[in-house]
Batch of 3 targets.
Target 1
Amino acid sequence: MSRIAVKKDKIKKGYKLLGKIVKNNYQLALMSLPLIIYLFIFRYLPMVGTVVAFKDYRYDRGILGSDWIGFKNFEFFFKSADAVRITFNTLSYNIAFIVLGTIINVAIALLLNEVYNKYAIKLYQTVMFIPHFMSWVVVAFIVYAFVSPAYGMMGQIQTMMGKESVNLFTKPELWRGILIGTGIWKWMGFSVLINYAVLISIDPSYYEAAKIDGASKFRIVRNISIPFLIPVILIQFILAVGRIFYADFGLFYQVPQNAPMLYKTTDVIDTYVFRALMEYGDIGISSAVGLFQSFVGMLLVIAANRTVKSIREEDALF
Amino acid sequence: MLALNQKKFKLSLALIHLFFILLCIIFIIPMISLLSISFSSESDIIDFGYRLIPRSFSIESYNFVFNNPKQIISSYRLTLFVTLAGTFLSMFIMLMCAYALSRKKFILRNVLSLFIFFTMIFNGGLVSSYILVTQYLRLRNTLWILILWGLVNVWYVFVLRTFIQGISESIIESAFIDGASEFKIFASLILPLSKPSIATIGLFMLLQYWNEWMPALLYITKPHLFPLQYLLQRTLQNLEEILRNMDKMPGNAIDYKVPSESVRMAMAVVAAGPMLMVMPFFQKYFVRGMTIGAVKG
């Protein structure tokens, strides 16, 4: 066979292989296409769109046509008093949720694991799960029933105890507690269930062996239950740390009803970006803050994951 | 000694039950208060405030909500449509992709996983999506944005993939040898076999769409496109405006006094009710979905 013939043969084989690859994969590719297109338009295009943070955006000129202004938007934001306030609020609320939430939800899951009556377990779980099915709007109504200045039940309780009832919408310092409490209340059913599902998957023979050895309840929890919970706690922890710069917009927008009097303690990055965009139409500031949030958020996810990986390789998320 | 131990044991168990009963009360009181207020008469609320137990039982607020239904009915209908259409479309798209990702021989599998996964780590933020939707896609005040806004949840795609991977590869391969196409395998094998996972994620999506208000807050200004939750939000912050719209109803006496305080709460009950009544029955699916979701993707 001449060299040319060999080459032709190779090319032929190459095409055949390519044909085979296409034939084996085109259907699967087609099936994933709708999702790819969706993510491309609604997730990747906005990523490209973040360049707007470095531009003096004008509606008539579009993102590409507007002038570059470097870091001016960021400078403007970081020099304002708002930057400290919303960053501090967002971080402190999230730390409170991570610490308090983890302690409370793990403790409740451990207690639930001590209950043996099937019906009681089901009842407690269902009741704790109710808020999960409600939107933040409905939760805001519920909170309002307690804190409404004119008719709220908190005011009535205060009057009953002989104190003067205060208008909570003029007391920003009380809202930290209200918001943290509301958040934990709404998410509790979900988190407890995750932890509890791990606890009931533990092989009962561990407990039996410990009991035979005469271990106290406290030691059993510390040496068996908690070690089994740690992977799940860690995964929730990475996810939470990765989102430490994000606040649940629903909680912080709907529950305080966007009341300007309360911004001091209720304003977080997400509500700030929303207001800057929708109420003041300030594309520059809102996009700069948004990008700051996304970027730091990304770094934090990677860092948190790396930390977990260095401690417990198998529990890292990626 | 043993008896003493058992006594101690019983006491601690009783304390645990007591704790959970108190906890349940904390969870139930808010719901009861919502219901109570909605069943209170307006004059009672004005005289005595919101009450955990209504002083008198009145259904005037519900009468108002259901007799002046223009806006509420239209929001209900819209929400129902968006919820069903959105869930259906979302499940279809996510399932097809999850199936492709589950096939080990799929050559784009890793690239595609990365493409999908990256959207979990970094996002473009509110502003650029807002500009995209309003200036380029021109989806403001359309039904489409209500459906498209939360159409794909990347986490669920991975959960579904994990579910589908649990189906034995050999079944798929044998169908393949019989000459079935991937579409055929997907439709006639994978879908029936993954009913539990479809139920689980489908419920999550159903709940998400029903409770959605964010896309409306951002992109909807026309009342005929208000979803239920968004209508509710506007009611809390600005009831008068909604009521004014209602008063345009023919046959509505102008001097009719609106029981505005209880109407608010009645509307919240009407909006939250369906999900609260349906969802507890599907709780076991939620538990399953979450435990799989907690396993890394």
Target 2
Amino acid sequence: MGASKKESVEVDKKKKNSKKNQPPKKEKHDTEESVLAQKLEDTATDYKELSADDDSEDYKSVGESEAGDGESSGDEGIHNTGSSEGLAIDGHSEDSEPDQGAEESDSSEDEVAPRNTVGDVPLEWYRDEKHIGYDIAGKKIKKKERQDKLDSFLANIDDSKNWRKIYDDYNDEEVELTKEETKLVRRMLKGKAPHADFDPYVPYVDWFKWEDAKHPLSNAPEPKSRFIPSKWEAKKVLGLVRAIRKGYIKFDKPKEEPRFYMLWGDDASSSEKTGHLSYIPAPKPNLPGHEESYNPSLEYIPTQEEINSYQLMDEEDRPKFIPKRFTSLRSIPAYENAVKDSFERCLDLYLCPRIRKKRINIDPESLKPKLPSRKDLRPYPATCYLEYRGHTDAVMSISTEASGQWIASGSSDGTVRLWEVETCRCIKVWEFGEIVQYVAWNPLPELPILAVTVGQDVFLLNSGLGNEEIQRKVKELLQVETPTAPVDSGNKVSGWSWLQDDEHEGIRLRHFKAVYSVEWHRKGDYFSTVMPAGDSKAILIHQLSKKFTQRHPFKLHGLPVSAVFHPTRSIFFVSTKKNVRVYDLLKQKLIKKLETGLREVSSISIHPAGDNVIVGSRDGKLCWFDMDLSSKPYKVLKCHPKDITNVAFHRSYPLFASCSDDCTAYVFHGTVYSDLNQNPLIVPLEILRGHAISNGRGVLDCKFHPRQPWLFTAGADSLIKLYCH
Amino acid sequence: MVARKKHYRPPGKKKEGNAARYVTRSQAIKQLQVTLGFFRRLSILKGIFPREPKKKFKGNNHTYYHVKDVAFLQHEPLLDKFRDIRAYQKKIKKAEAKKNADLATLLRTREPTYKLDRLVRERYPKFVDALRDLDDCLTMVHLFAALPAVERAKIDVELIHNCRRLSHEWQAYVSRTYKLRKVFISVKGIYYQAEIEGQKITWLTPHAMQQVLPDDVNFSVMLTFLEFYETLLGFVNFRLYHSINVKYPPILDPQLEALASDLYALSRYIVSNSRTSTLEPEAASSSTSQQLEAQEKEMQADESELRLAQLQHQLPSNEPGALMHLMENAECEHEDDQDTKECRRLFKNMKFFLGREVPRESMLFVIPAFGGVVSWDGEAAPYKESDQSITHQIVDRPTQGHKYLSREYVQPQWIYDCINARIILPTEAYMVGRIPPPHLSPFVDNDAEGYIPDYAETIKRLQAAAKNEVLPMPGVGKEDLDDPQNLLVEGYISRAEANEAVKTKKKMATLEKQYHEELQRELQGAVMKKSKQGSEEDAKASEESVPDPKQIAEDIDTMSKLGMSRKKRGLLEAIEKRKERNTARISKLKERKKKLKSSEN
């Protein structure tokens, strides 16, 4: 709409111009011809106006032409300037309007060039000249020779066509109208539309949209935006300019670079270090074996039963690939897991942590520690030489006499037997009628006294060995004086009493709970007993010579298992189920606590030098403690699959042994060096077998011979065996 | 009670040890300020992988990255690039949301892109490194070359075409330079092994079937991998082509490419004539789109061959007989190792013809790689089935109707077995309609495995015979006499007759086997009796004196284990376990074999 409004503005301007021009025109042309010409012009313009585009202004001019008065020249001016189509139709009419030639020359006179180019100047200026103006080349156009008025009049009378001749003042020539033109003129004179085909009574189309408007035109003043250049458009243009300048919009296509080029030029030059962590290449996928073939050997194909058995397996154990056989290449189907396998490989590649592992072909032998050969470590017990038969039930405990000539054994058949080592002869039998838990020889050779635990009692028995003097001494010792009785009664609260046992010719030491074990002091005067259920009085230390009993003065943390005297010093080891506590008996204080880390300690043994301790446990582990080193075990040997029942050190040889319920006994070499910097050398030497399991128990006790490298083992199968080198 | 921290660290104290050297994945993501998807993508492209700290300070179910690795990612320009791209995508999205289609299209035209070539160089500073890691790359590219384009999974056609192109280029190189070493048809696909610059590169191509796309696969991860692999393989191919003086990428008119079979004939023709003219694209331009479609299928199979021809064609063309020249050159090249020479000579002077049902793509790759000449049953084949010079026709159908007497009809497995054995095997076992002998994996070292399948042994014997240039073993020679294959070649003989011959042969064989077995049994029985007596005596002796040596050995073993540290003991136990498993497997195989034999008898 803006554009059309502008046009109308222009039109208005021209209207004014034409109004200015017209008054002199009328003054000039007083002649008939000029009137006719004027009329012609008017009608022509009318016609043109009608044939012009159907704008909203049209209906107005149509109405005027219908009214038929040719006076309203102002409007005609408008339409003339508007367009030239109407003029093109009546080709000559332009010649007949000299006054408007100047105005129209630029637009409507393309086809017939005007001969006179003087423009819109008063022709009277040329009245006295010989020429009327200039042609397009700038040459003067001469005036035609003037005829006599009379001659011309006569000529006009003679000429029958005179009436259609018109004199063109401007170009100084006579124009003869054609028939069509005259027809047009006639129609116009009648007040009709000049063209015969034109229908002035076409049904009216109301192009205007009457939206709330009473009038088709508004007399509101033109908005300013119509007069000034659009800011929005300017912005848009500016944006485009900027985009081009910045290179957002590119008119030339980017140059195609070759996608691939020589990436690795010289390998020699590319050996620069990345300075990054080392790249660990992913392991390559496994190469397929025979079984993955489409046509494997028949033996690779599992039977139907085997395939069925896979279903019962755990999903992780199930074989991922079941070999199949296709008899020809064409029958292979698509592998359904192809994409999935590839995807899993991808996951492995980017999600699996990578470690560089040296996968050398390790010789399993090389993993085993270098140990001195066993031959060099002889002698040690290796083979079973003797068996001591006589017990009718499991042999619970054995003990060797200090000289090494005798052994005593306690069994669950309620007897204690005394054997001669070399002859296997049973010298003596004591009957108790109750399970004999433990036997222990007095370590002094001149005091062949046997301590035996049966139920709640500890019996001190005279073995009846040795010469008379010794016998006398022993008998003396084993006499409980009556005066101790009141002491006993006084101690009844604490629950132990020294009693004379006439049946076995010894002392019966009564406890208030079942006694588990009894251990002698190295000097043979003191001995300790352990009552696991005895709470604070679980561990008692007895003095044989004075028939005196005292309580172990320290608090126990946990159930006591065994209590042992140090072989040389007055140090006392008490082992509970978890730990071993070491006390100094003279200073009456705790020296050390050995943390075994075992579940349940079953036995303990002290190295004859006293600085090393071995502890056996019910989870089959053997701990070696170096007392000087640490409170943690120096070495843990997991040797037995079942409980370790007992551990033992040899008194003179560097040997130690462990026996277990799995019917084996291990013999180890254990050298302790006097050099403190050197760790003890522990070498397993031999596994001793031979006992049989009975009631789920195997070997119950093992003891070394005091002088020889021999080992006695007591089995639950009621046998005692001697292993010699 | 307030839960105490497991490891108390006074404030302000720096971390030490593993906690300072490693970060978990979520920590890394936080540090890099990226999303998990971004991180994943970046680490795949950069080849960053988690590492295993000695002590897992956050627990076992965390993934740990080395801090240096994370820093490496942080300094990656690609990270910024990805961010830019993401911002740009947001712009487009915004424009679209505002219905500013013009802007959206304008933005789309200038989307930022990125290149991965720097990363390839960074990850593989040397060409050999790239070759070493090429296995996965090739497998993946070959897999995608066989996948259908799926819009849902964002696998577009272009990608698949590119994969196909790359894989064919690779195959063309391998085939042309005779680098292929081993082929194995498994249920999963066909394994190929090539040896390039001393690197053994193994890859798997799926069987030419419609692949199924499972739902539980994250394709975006695979596509990221593929993106890198495509770049890598492109550069590797470039380098390889460069090394044999061939321009890369091979310039192929796309239309010609579609019409590969025509081009094949054309280029062959050109090569055989003068090798001076250039490719003429107008040959293809006349074709209609329908033809294109029809031959699309053809293309897949022929492309490798086409490339081969192309390779030959692109040699310095100013000289007539360029191909011949190259061949001479190659022969002069003494740097070719023994293996390559052997491979080149395997199918020399042999002409193959493929039946319609034979997997053509694989055959067209494999046979030329071992010096053979091959044609197929199709429009553009270099020679027709009726060619008299064809020595072997490869057929995979139950029966073959018309037979030429001058050639042998074998199943495709024969080709692969020959390649793996590196000798020309006798063809009678691979005849049409028979069940071929077992196809054995060339990747297994039978001796190390401890179990040698029967057919491997026969192949071994044949190889030895071929080496000594002597006729195969007498037994084999005899078999040849009544070999139905020979009879077939000699004259027309009905299938029934052939079958009969086979049956009689089998019978003979079984009888022979029985006899042998009986003999063996007798021998064993004698030995057994002896050994039984001996063992009884032994037992007595052992009871009397020494415990049996087995026990002693075991004891020694257990005792030696006692002194070991826990770590070493574990290692030892693992070794022993593996050994045990192996022996169990082998014994199972043997047992199965025995059962099979007994059921046969």
Target 3
Amino acid sequence: MTVMEQRGAYRPAPPPAWQPRTDPAPLLPDAEPYRVLGTETAGKADPGLLRRLYAELVRGRRYNTQATALTKQGRLAVYPSSTGQEACEVAAALALKERDWLFPSYRDTLAVVARGLDPVSALTLLRGDWHTGYDPREHRIAPLCTPLATQLPHAVGLAHAARLKGDDVVALAMVGDGGTSEGDFHEALNFAAVWQAPVVFLVQNNGFAISVPLAKQTAAPSLAHKAVGYGMPGRLVDGNDAVAMHEVLSEAVARAREGGGPTLVEAVTYRMEAHTNADDATRYRPDAEVDAWRDHDPILLLERELTERGLLDDDIRRQAAEDAETMAADLRERMNQDPLLDPMDLFTHVYTEQTSQLREQAAQLRAELEVASEEADASEGRTR
Amino acid sequence: MTTVAAKPATKPATMAQALGRALRDSMAEDPSVHVLGEDVGALGGVFRVTDGLAREFGEDRCTDTPLAEAGILGTAVGMAMYGLRPVVEMQFDAFAYPAFEQLISHVARMRNRTKGAMPMPITVRVPYGGGIGGVEHHSDSSEAYYMATPGLHVVTPATVADAYGLLRASIASDDPVVFLEPKRLYWSKADWNPDAPQSVEPIGRAVVRRSGRSATLITYGPSVPVCLEAAAAPAPRAGTSKWSTCARWCLSTTRRSPRPYDARGVRSSCTSRVASGARAER
């Protein structure tokens, strides 16, 4: 039996026999975002996992501040910060097995780094040197996607292809609240549900699409509710609760792996920084609103839990801070070196075999560069 | 550049049949070839090009998708990322536009974006062009949009044999190909032997359809029969038209692939007088 046949045939029934094709009740998200930290269930969380999440969150926060600093030093063209959203980023990476695929958006370099990729490679796109700094197949990380939500159908297609081949692979695709208005979001979720593809869609609802608040983006009860219309379960989670995020994403990944189909997860979080270093958030939101979220910071929430359970001492704090600082220093040092770029790369990878037009253009550029280099040498000679 | 020699007559076949046969042979030869699109399964496509594929290869290889062109091409990108070789069908020329962003922003650029690590061996089949009395959005000559995009090959067949060979070559290509199928020629017939299909040539080569010495006509796809007809017509008398200097229309070079343009092949076949033309927006 083919994967397509497993879905069962659907034929329009005569009007009296009409009934919903699936019961919508089990697909509905909870009324409140799911939380673990600060609730009774937090006590059951594995201490090893809590410590791991803590170290990753501290490292992630330091990564965000370092990358933002690099934009001010002219070493990054742009940086869309995920400060305040580290729990979502880290949980997305940790929920996946090595053979699984991650489909990040431009704001998700932290998830890429948390998956184990070298931060310098992760930041290549935002440095402006090249479009992707790693081999996606080697790391099972799709290129950071800049056009909104267009990577979601890629995740569906990849997961579907893996299932057709009989491979035990899940794809996790990340998108923001603004991206849910795009047609590709709709088409991806629809295809995923129809094909029962092993995909998890993670929407980080950080409140804003650059300056536009969620109220101007959607009239849906929640973004998680959109899942019901496609026939997949929607989960609403506190995106600043790293333990809840890890639990819900891990469940969704496991469900997809077992053939249960896709899940839409809405993580309610907040973008603490402006959209990017080039944005001015004071034009569209009051500081008081940002400050209100500081009490609900993902690191703070985790620290409270760890402290309460006696799992956080000064040594652990110091160790986490030192590890983060080592990462930041290394990143700073390597990003401050000018990369060697080959202008001929512009023509090399457009087609498998270079066309005669591209060969001509490459030759023209090479000749111009040679002339420029000779002129530079001559002018240097004169200066001496 | 190649010169097409007449094949031994076998039996009449239509271009649509040759295209279907090319899909079938590609799927039989390579299990990574998957066909997806609207109505490509039980119906065999609105032009019946995919007729029988779902029956022969199963619905997992020839898949009726939801009605959403960006979703079709977007999922094909993901399938290609995982090593499959998708052939997607856009139902009509103007119905392909919702997939434009996926085509331009991802399909065409993925190889370059990843420095060759992730090629996109996707063939996008688009029934195109007018001349069949079709309604609006069913008669667009949309090649110019695709030809302006680096990373894509854009090809269009003019004959039944072309259709088979070009589609096989497109599917075998590791680069994405926009394969424009002239609707007006779907039911054109030629003696063609489906049991001994021609060797598959690389795409991007010009071909001389009719030899002569006085003037050259350069064109592609659905305009080829039109230009061949013009070339066969009696020469206009001196002083009667802007082409009065042409003693005869006698040579017609056809480009089977608008992009990449086989400049050397076309140039080598040019006479001292050259005209190019196609039914297309400009």
